[in-house]
Design brief:
This is Electron transfer flavoprotein subunit alpha. Belongs to the ETF alpha-subunit/FixB family. The chain is an alpha/beta fold and 554 residues long. It has four domains: 6-57, no CATH class; 69-122, no CATH class; 161-393, 3-Layer(aba) Sandwich (Rossmann fold); 415-542, TPP-binding domain (Rossmann fold). It has 18 helices and 19 strands. The strands form five sheets. It has a seven-stranded parallel β-sheet, with helices on both faces. Helix 10 packs across helix 11 (282-294). It is globular.
């Protein structure tokens, strides 16, 4: 007989009690009591979810030699093989995948890991063949080569690169949250990097603006070792050319390869940053592309994950010899969603024998990383960067503009209720019902899919204020990870998946049982959102859905 008899309790009381039960057999006994007694579906779901969680915790790490690959997603396979260093085990995994699910992307992940572990073997009896290098301007004489005109491009090979630079964006006099998130992630990455490679490289925060100096203390508290800032009243609003020129000038300041006549700077004795990270906001996307392009390096845009690892590469264009392999050290692996489907691609920026590609750059989707706790006791170096700004960069003067007050930050809420094109039959009523559900929770807010933002729906004035781009969730909007994410009338495109995939529990409401969102939802309610949302609101107000939420909270 279990200690808790579910039939003696209301559903609202069971959530907190069940969370403390860690014995799967006891939970099964509770489930049997409920089935023989009240037989309430929400209670059974509550107990079954807890059983699944307890058993998954008992299973521990996945054993690649015995795991059933059919039970793993492609993402699970990718994460598992990253930890496998035995080529024979990997080949066995590959054969089992071919004989079972035979998923193209899963096989590619395993094959890539095999190559990383042992490289591509040369054909027996063949000698390595060097790849002839021909400069681009000679190889393609009929094409223009604008790279040659970029003032910051020096075509370096074997130069010294250090540190991770983080562009910290401010808006309306405030440091935006994604800047803090990136600093926390950079701090973690560089701490691990320094330990693994026995280095002492830094997190460098870059601040540009009319009030840049006001944020120095904050960026140090969130993880920066060094702050380089430039402050000028003309930089109150983001401007493409001056912001790009300032960042690039900072990046190339000092070092052996500084521009002729420029004195070395004591805070930087290397050529360029090793890594650069920007926010994937409207301004951050512009600046990241401009800076990386001006420095003639690569950019992985809209990333949701970063890690630093060595990479075994056999591409002749990168290695310089056909059939050979080379291990590149300290490579920033930049994880971003794949537009072709519900998978992720990892982007690498690898040098060539005659060409260095630095800094390795990424822009990061807001909400991708946890918000760190600030430590205002941290010490950091501060550089007030001096630079003359060309008056020609400010030929256009903005005399008047409107600034939205407040803004909407969807991160940090317990619940997000998001609606999509399913509201099309009656857009105003769809928003009203979603807001009713939001109000039923203690800590919730409204999110929108891109389809609603870009639609030509007509909304009545009392709800029109809620249909704004800043409520958009997804790759080009905010990324959230609430305890519960309710997606009503959203098909589940990959761009939207990126914005909500880390939620603890995803509940989808859709008339199409085969909608893409089914693939990454915990629950799918097949039905019209105009009928389902009011029922969910009633369930929350009655305390029924709240109990399910607590059981699903990891």
């Amino acid at each position: 007989m279990p200690d808790i008899d579910p039939t003696d309790h209301e559903i609202a009381e069971l959530g907190p009690k069940i969370k403390d039960v860690d014995d799967a057999d006891e939970l099964r006994a509770m489930l049997a009591l409920e089935e023989d007694g009240e037989d309430r579906v929400p209670v059974k779901t509550l107990i079954e979810d807890r059983i699944e969680k307890v058993e998954s915790e008992d299973d521990g790490e996945i054993d690649p030699e015995t795991v059933d690959l059919s039970e793993l997603t492609v993402a699970d396979v990718a994460n598992m093989v990253r930890e496998v260093d035995d080529a024979d085990v990997l080949r066995d995994l590959l054969e089992r995948e071919k004989a079972g699910e035979d998923r193209k992307t899963a096989k590619s992940q395993i094959e890539s890991r095999i190559e990383s572990v042992e490289g591509t073997e040369e054909a027996e009896g063949e000698e390595s063949e060097a790849v002839e290098y021909v400069p681009p301007e000679e190889k393609y004489p009929d094409l223009d080569h604008p790279t040659n005109d970029k003032q910051w491009v020096e075509g370096t090979v074997g130069a010294e690169y250090r540190d991770m630079w983080v562009y910290c964006e401010t808006q309306a006099g405030e440091l935006v949250d994604v800047s803090k998130e990136m600093l926390g992630k950079a701090r973690t990455l560089m701490d691990t990097y320094n330990e693994e490679y026995d280095e002492s490289e830094r997190v460098v925060a870059v601040l540009i603006g009319a009030d840049a100096g006001d944020h120095v203390e904050d960026v140090i508290a969130y993880g920066a070792d060094l702050v380089v800032y430039h402050e000028d009243p003309r930089l109150e609003r983001f401007r493409h050319q001056p912001y790009t020129e300032i960042f690039c000038d900072m990046a190339r300041a000092g070092g052996e390869l500084a521009a002729e006549g420029r004195e070395d700077i004591d805070w930087k004795e290397y050529h360029e940053p090793r890594y650069t990270v920007f926010p994937a906001t409207n301004n951050g996307r512009d600046l990241s592309a401009l800076v990386q392009g001006e420095l003639d390096s690569g950019l992985a845009s809209d990333c949701s994950g970063l890690y630093i690892e060595n990479a075994m590469i056999s591409n002749p264009a990168k290695v310089g010899t056909a059939g050979d392999k080379k291990e590149f050290e300290r490579v920033l692996h930049m994880k971003r969603p794949d537009f072709s489907g519900f998978e992720y691609s990892t982007i690498l920026c690898i040098d060539k024998p005659h060409r260095d590609f630095h800094p390795q750059g990424a822009s990061v989707i807001p909400g991708s990383f946890e918000m760190p706790d600030p430590d205002y006791e941290r010490d950091g170096e501060v550089v007030d960067y001096e630079m003359a700004l060309d008056d020609d960069w400010f030929k256009v003067e903005v005399e008047e503009y409107d600034r939205l007050s407040g803004g909407v930050d969807l991160t940090g809420h317990d619940v997000i209720v998001a609606v999509g094109r399913g509201i099309g039959d009656d857009p105003t009523r769809g928003i009203e019902q979603a807001l009713d559900l939001v109000d039923a929770f203690e800590d919730a807010d409204l999110g929108l899919s891109r389809g609603v933002i870009t639609s030509s729906y007509s909304f009545d004035g009392h709800v029109e204020q809620y249909v704004t781009e800043e409520r958009q969730i997804g790759e080009s909007g905010q990324e959230v990870e609430p305890d519960v994410y309710i997606a009503a009338g959203i098909s589940g495109a990959i761009q939207h998946k990126v914005g909500c995939d880390e939620s603890d529990t995803i509940i989808a409401v859709n008339t199409d049982p085969d909608a893409d969102i089914r693939d990454f939802s915990d629950y799918l309610i097949e039905g019209d959102l105009f009928e389902v949302l009011p029922q969910l609101t009633e369930a929350v107000e009655a305390g029924e859905l709240g109990a399910m939420m607590e059981a699903s909270d990891d």
